[in-house]
Structure formats: C-alpha cells, structure tokens
Design a protein that fits this description.
Order of helices and strands of chain A: HEHEHEHHEEEHHHEHHEEHHEHHH
Number of helices of chain B: 24
Largest interface: A-B, 63 and 67 residues
Helix content of chain B: over 70%
Structural class of chain B: mainly alpha
Number of strands of chain A: 10
Largest sheet of chain A: 6 strands, mixed
Distance between the termini of chain B: 20 Å
Radius of gyration of chain A: 21 Å
Strand order of the largest sheet of chain B: 1-2
Structural class of chain A: alpha/beta
Strand content of chain B: under 5%
Shape of chain A: globular
Strand order of the largest sheet of chain A: 2-1-3-9-4-10
Oligomer: heterodimer
Largest sheet of chain B: 2 strands, parallel
Radius of gyration of chain B: 25 Å
Shape of chain B: globular
Helix content of chain A: 40-55%
C-alpha cells in the first residue's frame, strides 16, 4: 500500500519533478498500442539509460491534449499508427522539422515528410484477402475490382470511422480524383456483406466463419493471427489467402506507423536519439518480429511469416497526400453511406 | 437513499427542510465560497459551451445533409429503448423485493444491484465475444445442426437493439435503487387507506404506490438516460452512430471542435428539455405523506408458481447483467492469466483503487460544502451555481476532458508564465499534467451524484431540529457537528460508494487526461479490447467488477436501512 501511495504521489508531482529531474528521459504520447512499442523502448533504455515515459491514447485525442498544453506540453514525441494523423499534427504546428542523416538514410523518401516533420518507422500494407474456392483471384486484381456488383453481399471491412479506411480512400482520391473515389466507395459500400463492425481481425474471423468471402485488412493483423497463441485465430487466418492488388499499376496501398518530434519538446536531444535508435537494425528487427510490420528500413528483412505472403509492389505515393485528402475521404464516406 | 437524486429533479420536503430564505444578495463566505467553487467546477463545461458562439462555416450543412438525422434517430431510439427497459426491469424487481417474500428474495435484494459494477463497454465486449457470428454460440449451432450462414437468422449483437439490451442490463440498477428507496419511504397508512377504500393489491400498486414513487423512478430513469447519452464504449464497439459518437467523429475525425461542441450543447439542451417536460407534467401535484410515523412494511409471501415466477423475474436481470458476463470473463481470465496478471497488473489495480477513493472523497467534500452553503443561503444565485456545477453529468467524458484541458491548460500556462518571469524557473503543467487534473475531471463529471444525495440528506434535517439545537445552547458549528453530521453521514457515504464504483469504470476522460506511465484497469481493458484482444481484456475487466461488489453491498444495506423504524425480519 505504501508503495502504491508513493507511486501515486509521484504521479501527482510529475510536473514538478519534470523540471528538476535530469535530462536523461524522454516523454512519448503514443497512439500505438503499448504492447507494440514497449520492446523497442525497453531495448533503448537498456542501451542508453534514458528513461522512457509513456502515455497511450487515441491519436486525435492526444493531438487535442498537445494543443491545449501548448508551450508547456511535456511530450517530446508523438507516435501514431498512420501517416494521416502525423500530417494532421504537422499542419496544427505540433511537430518540428528535423534534419538527421541517420533517419534520412534509413527511411525511403515516400515514408517520411519531405520537410522532416515526421518519420515512418514501420510499414504495413492494406491488401485484399479471400477465401480460396469461393473467389477466383483472377477476377480480383485491383481495389477498383472490389466495386464490381458481382461481389454484392460478399465484402467484409471495418467502419469508415477508422483511419485505415480513410487513408485507403485518400490514396484513391490522390491517384484518381474525388469523383472516381466517390464512385468506388459507393460501389464497395453496396457490396458489403454486413454493416461494418469490429476491427480488421474481426473481418478475417467472420470470413473464416463464412459471413463473407472477401476482406480488406492490414497485413500485420493477418500475420499476427497466423502466429497467434490462440488456435482459433490461427485456424481462421489459415483459411484465407492474400491478393496484392494493383500490381500492374500503382501498387498496393501502404501506410506507416511513425513519429514526430514535438514543436516544444523539452528533451529534444533524447527524442532524436530515440527516433534514430528506432530505425537502427536492431529495433527494426523487433518491429518485424514482434509487430509483424514490414521494416521501413529496406535493408532489414521482413518476418518469415510476412515473407511467406510473397513480394509485392507498394504504392509510392508520398504519405503526406493521405493526410491532405483525409477530410475529403471522411465526407465521401458520409455521402455514400459507408457507416 | 435519496428521493432527490438529481439536482432539482425533485423537491420532496425540500422547502419544509430549508431555513428561511435569504433573498437579498449577501457577499459573505457562504455566498461567495460556493459561487467560486461551483464556478471552477463548471468551468470545463462552460469552456465547451462557449464554443457555441464561434462560427463553424459549412460543417453543419455537411452534417445536416449526411449523418445528423442518423445521430438523432439512433440517440432517440437508444434513449427510448433504455428508458423503457430500465423502467420495466427496475420497477418490477424493486416492487417484488420490497412488498413480497419469495424464494431468494433476501438474496435478490442486493444481487439486483450487482450489474452496477459492470462497465457498459465490458459487458459489450463479453456478449460480442459470446454471440458474434464467429463466436462459440453460433459456431456450435452451425456445427450441431450442420447449418451455414443462409440457414438461420439470429438478431445481431452489434446493432441498435443490442446496444439497448447491453445498456439496459447495466443501468436498470439505478431505477431499481431509487424505486426501492421510494417504496421503502412510503407510509403504511397510505397503503392501508387504499386497501380499506376497496382497492385490491394490484390497483393499490397502480394508483397509489406507483404514483407516490414516481419522482424516484423518474430520477432513476433520467440517470440511466444520461449515462446512455454519455456512453461511448458500447455504441462505438457496436458501430451504432449516436450523438456521442458523432461528437467524437466531428471533433477528432473531421477536426472540427466547434461543430462538435455545438453538437454537445444540443445534447445538453435536449436533456434539460426532457427534465423540464417531466417536471411540468407533474404539474402542481406534490407528493407528501400525511404522517411521519412508519411501521415495518407489510410483505406478502408468494409461494408455488407465483414465487418461482417472481424469482425468475429477478434472476433474469441479475443473470444476464452480471452472472453470465462474469462467468465468461472468468473463463477468459483463466485462459489468459499467465500473460495478463503480472506485477504491472497490480499497479493498474492500485492506481484505479486509489484514484477512485481519492476522487470519491474530494467530490463528496465539495458536494457537502455546496449543499450546506445552499441551505444557509438559498438565494437564486447560489442555487443556480450548484445546478451549474452538476451539469457535467450529462456531458460525455471526452468532452469534459477536453474542457478541462481548455480551461486549465490556460491556467497552467498562466501560472507557469508568472513563475517563469518572477522566479526564472518553470512549473510545468500543475493541473493538466498530473493526476490532480484527472481527479478534478471526475468531480466535474460526477458531482451531480453526491450533490443530490447530500441535498436529499439535508432535506431530512428539518428546520425545527436546527432550532431545537440552537435553543438548547448549541452554536452553529456545534449544530453542524453534532446534529447535521451524524444525520448526513449515511447519504454522504452512499454517494461516496457510488462515486467510487463510477470512477473505477470511467474510461474516456481517463484516457485523455492521465499522466505518464499511469494506467488503470479500465484503460488496460480498453487497450486490450481495442487491439481486438477481447480475452486479454477479461482480467482487468473482471477485477473492476469484483472491486465494485463490496461498495454495492454496502449501498444495498444503506437503502434497506433508509426506512425510518424499519425492522429487519
């Protein structure tokens, strides 16, 4: 009990401490799940003795919190699970521009902000999955094919409230314009097997159970299910196969999980050090093995599981464009009635 | 407990209990103190409401053309469904356990309160895992009967009716609790008079007992409705678009805080209108008992089929709202405990526990000060201030959190700037960067609960008691200490217990405001569930429920004892 009380007192006093404590710490507001970044952060602390403080939450709520805290925000780094939110934080003036040779060398240009405001750390694709036997993959080669009326009542995908779908639609807006994107969203919305519900894993499970036979989901969810401790999840994932769409043209839609150094970072030096550590070979291997993300650093191989899905051509659109078209994407979803 | 549970929702005996009104404004401690205190509490909500006056451009047109109708229709249907559902479950079960004896009736008395400990989002996770297409029930059906998807139809859990069912199951205890308190406070004379005038037990219930309990029942239903409008976890998990999810989407998804705040304000106005309509519909009717003499309420024994039927009527809400979800959570927790229950798990539990205890203490103290001030100086200004302070109950947690950030971010920066320029060092964020901000947010969110409970407690302390004490030579401080305090202790304790349970369950404000490295059980459960690891969410979810059981039992005792002169059989 005394232990708890002292911990609690410490939390009450955090702001006072923060000003007195030595600089050997770095504060993170993270929209990424703790479980997915803790191994890398722990490894960083082990190597550098820099303490990492963490608050997790929804990206947009964390951004609101940083806005309200203003100059005094204790956050040094903002982690998000997608580029759209990093773009939003950048336009809100919450991120600072950064030049770092280590970061620029490790991260290919499409996966970081051209001005150095934010950096992608892990990569994921959003391909199509299908039930062999029910779907002929020869008939489903592009995202555009999903809008074909022949798939009516067969597509499983999560709600448009989620940024993963918003980014996918934003990429289509960027490539083909608003009107074509709206037409596409309308077509897909008409083909849904059920009202969108649950997350990406739920779609895969529902397809395995026979509720639909085509799923749009992120690559790491599928790979995590394939390697899960839970037999049910493994079995469900094994029933589906992947299609890498648009290989003949722009490539499969990809996004990053990434981070920016905040505009008023009190521990900027430590923050940059952490970012550089996260693109190092060792940390990138953790991204690959623990989180089943594709390492953003092209020198590091993906996990065995992901390699088993075959190689693919990725969309090389600069991810800044996903952020630029996000608001338009939300409005299109509202208009076409994709819940 | 409280007949008057919500600020201003009811006025049984209040006028009789208050000291003579001081209508003139007096700038003394008892006027200014509560004004300042209530002002600080109301600040976050006012900061959000202030956004109403900012221009929003064409966002509203987009909302109106596309999603607004859906938000309104879903919210209304959800509210109507939960209102009717909680009223039926709550009143029926309260009536049965108060006036009848049947198998297990003493057990149901307190077990009926247990779903109160179940956070709505946890029960939603549980039933989703159980009843989804890929879940064990449907899989079993398909395997047992060789069905495929086309061969059968079951109502989907993740739907509007599903959300109504989930919320009804965890919110009916509010109605049960207040209906039971109202039934218990009724004088036997009224019931006997009705029987002598030739009404049967059924007619007596419908035309005497029920109308007399109406204020309490209405307050219970409005509490349930406000919790419903406030709910985010369940409806977002079920993908049911309501006003609250709309506020989130507009604020965080479209980046339009002003339009979102305006949606929130619309919701507030709607709630206020509902309460007003109810008050009007009661018209001039007042509910008074002619006598303060109470005897033990007569109870009838139900045996045979009637008894079993009554027991089943109580088992249904307890079973579906508590026993079944706890069993499922327990099963999942056992399957996952090796990875979920570690040293950090106990840290989360400790954080939850201490946070809830401190918040309950702080809120009850504030409520006591406000209610006492209101009794000493019942001027319209003070009364208004107290009402404003209780407003947060109808505001979604995330909106309150952002309000706290808006209001106190500025305050923190001001202090920091002043200290910086005066002493040359920085204080950082005093309120919003620490658990103090969190405790404050809970006070804003839940203050209506202790304020109304304490107000109701004060209403039982009549002016003649004060007079008698003063005549006998007590000074005002002595009256407070030796007359008021013992009489109020019960209501204050009850309010504190309810708060404790509510803070343990609170999610959205905690998520936004918590300091670094400070997670609670609710946060943990949410993180796991949002990462689609429902089974890993079971252990923290289950502990929230288990920790809530002890306060709920105490609460049940407090209600049972609330009847003056009631003897336990």
């Amino acid at each position: 009990m005394r232990f708890l009380c002292s911990r609690f007192a410490a939390a009450l006093l955090v702001p006072f401490w923060a000003t007195i404590a030595d600089a050997a710490e770095v504060n993170i507001y993270s929209a990424r799940q703790e479980a997915l970044i803790k191994p890398q952060l722990d490894a960083f602390t082990d190597e550098t003795a820099i303490r990492v403080n963490l608050v997790t939450g929804d990206a947009k709520e964390l951004v609101q919190r940083m806005k309200a805290e203003g100059l005094n925000s204790p956050a040094d780094l903002l982690f998000t699970a997608d580029a759209g939110n990093l773009y939003a934080a950048t336009t809100a003036g919450l991120c600072q521009q950064l030049r770092s040779e280590a970061l620029e060398r490790a991260i290919p240009a499409p996966y970081r902000d051209p001005q150095g405001s934010w950096f992608g750390l892990g990569l994921r694709a959003r391909p199509i999955f299908y039930l062999p036997g029910k779907v002929d993959p020869a008939e489903l080669k592009t995202y555009e094919d999903l809008a074909d009326p022949k798939w009516k009542g067969r597509i499983l995908v999560r709600s448009s409230n989620h940024v993963y779908n918003q980014s996918l639609l934003a990429s289509i807006i960027a490539h083909k314009g608003s009107a074509a994107a709206e037409e596409w969203a309308k077509g897909v919305a008409a083909n849904l097997a059920r009202k969108p519900q649950g997350g990406d894993r739920d779609q895969i499970k529902a397809a395995a159970a026979g509720e639909g036979d085509i799923v749009i989901a992120n690559s790491y969810y599928y790979a995590q299910m394939l390697t899960s401790d839970n037999e049910e999840e493994r079995e469900a994932a094994k029933k589906l196969k992947v299609i890498w769409p648009n290989q003949a043209d722009r490539g499969v839609h990809v996004n990053v999980s990434g981070a920016c150094v905040t505009a008023h970072a009190p521990n900027k030096e430590a923050a940059v050090k952490l970012l550089e550590y996260l693109v190092s070979d060792k940390a990138q291997q953790i991204y690959a093995e623990m989180g089943q993300e594709f390492p953003v650093n092209p020198d590091i191989p993906a996990s065995q599981t992901l390699q088993g899905l075959g190689s693919f051509k990725a969309d090389e659109l600069n991810l800044v464009e996903l952020g630029e078209h996000n608001a338009e994407a939300v409005r299109i979803f509202d208009r076409v009635g994709w819940p | 407990m409280a007949e008057s549970f919500l600020p201003g929702a009811d006025s049984v005996g209040k006028a009789g209990g208050a000291l003579p009104a001081h209508r003139r404004f007096r700038a003394d401690l008892w006027t200014l103190g509560p004004l300042v205190l209530a002002g600080i509490i109301a600040l976050p909500v006012l900061a959000v409401l202030a956004q109403l006056f900012l221009p929003t451009g064409e966002v509203w047109r987009h909302l109106a053309e596309t999603v607004l109708t859906r938000y309104i229709v879903n919210s209304l249907l959800l509210g109507a469904g939960v209102g009717v559902g909680t009223a039926i479950l709550g009143v029926t079960s309260a009536w049965l356990v108060t006036f009848y004896r049947f198998p297990g009736s003493r057990l149901w008395e307190w077990t009926l309160l247990l779903p109160l400990t179940m956070p709505a989002y946890v029960i939603a996770y549980t039933y989703t895992g159980l009843l989804d297409f890929a879940g064990p029930v449907q899989t079993w059906l398909r395997e047992a009967f060789g069905w495929t998807r086309e061969d059968y139809w079951l109502p989907p859990v993740r739907s509007l009716p599903g959300a109504i069912a989930m919320l009804t199951l965890v919110l009916y205890p509010y109605v049960y609790m207040l209906a039971r308190a109202s039934f218990l406070s009724q004088s036997v004379c009224v019931i006997e008079a009705s029987r002598t005038l030739g009404l049967g037990p059924w007619r007596t219930f419908l035309s005497v007992t029920l109308p007399l309990a109406r204020p309490g029942i209405i307050v219970g239903v409005s509490l349930a409705l406000m919790e419903t409008l406030n709910d985010f976890g369940t409806v977002s998990h079920f993908a049911v678009d309501t006003f609250t999810t709309g506020i989130y989407r507009t604020w965080f998804g479209m980046g339009e805080p002003v339009a979102a705040a305006q949606l929130g304000a619309t919701l507030l106005i709607f709630v206020a209108a509902l309460l007003l309509i109810e008050r009007r519909s009661r018209g001039a009717a007042r509910y008074h008992h002619t006598t303060g003499r109470y005897r033990t309420l007569p109870t009838r024994r139900l045996s045979g089929a009637a008894g079993l039927f009554a027991a089943a009527a109580c088992l249904l809400p307890v079973g579906l709202g508590f026993l079944l979800p706890v069993a499922v959570l327990g099963k999942w927790a056992i399957e996952t405990w090796t990875s979920t229950i570690d040293a950090r798990f106990f840290q989360f539990a400790g954080n939850s526990f201490i946070l809830a205890a401190i918040s309950a203490g702080v809120s009850v103290t504030i409520a006591l000060i406000l209610a006492y001030a209101q009794r000493r100086r019942p001027t319209p200004l003070v009364v208004l201030a107290v009402r404003l302070a209780g407003m947060g109950y109808a505001v979604p947690g995330a909106v309150i959190a952002v309000g706290v950030l808006l209001a106190f971010g500025a305050f923190d920066s001001f202090i920091d700037g002043w200290v910086r320029s005066t002493f040359g060092s920085s204080t950082g964020l005093i309120v919003t960067g620490s658990s103090a901000g969190l405790i404050f947010a809970y006070s804003v969110r839940f203050l209506a609960i202790p304020v109304s409970a304490v107000e109701a407690g004060f209403a039982r302390v009549t002016a003649s008691m004060d007079g008698a004490a003063r005549t006998l030579g007590e000074r005002p401080g002595g009256v407070l200490r030796r007359v008021h305090a013992p009489l109020l202790a019960g209501s204050a304790l009850t309010a504190g217990l309810l708060l404790f349970v509510d803070v343990m369950k609170e999610l959205p404000a905690t998520l936004i405001l918590r300091p670094f490295n400070f997670d609670t059980l609710a946060i943990r459960a949410y993180q796991m569930a949002s990462d689609e690891r429902l089974r890993d969410a079971a252990a923290p979810g289950l502990l929230i429920v288990l920790v809530g059981i002890a306060p709920v039992i105490l609460l049940s005792r407090a209600i049972a004892r609330s009847r003056p002169g009631q003897m336990r059989e």
